[in-house]
Structures are given as C-alpha cells and as structure tokens.
Amino acid sequence: MLIIISGGVCSRLYICEDIGQSQSSNPKHVRKLLIRLFGGKVFDRETNPLRRLNDSEEAIIYFEQGRSGNGPHIYGIFKGGRVEQFIPSHTAKDADLANPEFIKEYAIKLARYVVDHGIHEFD
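The chain above was modelled as a monomer; its predicted structure follows.
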C-alpha cells in the first residue's frame, strides 16, 4: 500500500507499507518505510538556495545519523530520492511547546546529541 503523507516544500513523502497477511520470519523484514522524492512545491533539488551539501555529502551524513540512532536508517539512495526507515512522529504544535514534559524530553535529546557529536560552539 502506498500513502501520500506530504507534498512538502523540498520533498514529496510517501509511506510504503507491506500489508500482506503473512508474518515474515526474517527479523530484518521492514513492514513500513518512507520514500522521499526530492523536489517540492517551492524548491527543487538543484535551485534550493538553502542547500549547502552535494548529494554524496548529504547521503553520508544521513547514513551516519541513522547508523548512530539519531535519525532514520537509510535503506537505499536513488537518483531523485531515497528510501528511509519510517518513524511515526508529528510536527511540534503550540500545545507541545507549552507542555513542560515535552520540553524536558526535547532538551534531554538535544543535549545528548550535542555531547555525542562534540558540538561546543555555534556559528
């Protein structure tokens, strides 16, 4: 099954889900993944003024983020997009930002990321 979840500014996102009845005996079998097609409503891949990395640099960074547990795993890269681990989530809303538990969890995760990556100063 293929579900459109976003026609974003920089990418188009689709969820691809295996809805077969049988359970795979393979522990590495992925039932749901994200397909990201580059190019969106406002920016395409080549003319995006905010893009600072080339395709190879970006692929390495995203692969390492997934490998270290700080982002989705990258299952494949193809011309014009990539296939990623699907991580259920939502965009933070005003109610989330007013929730002290949400802010605490976010601060802990951000601090862990900064320490793990040796970030000591910001430009």
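The mean pLDDT is 80.
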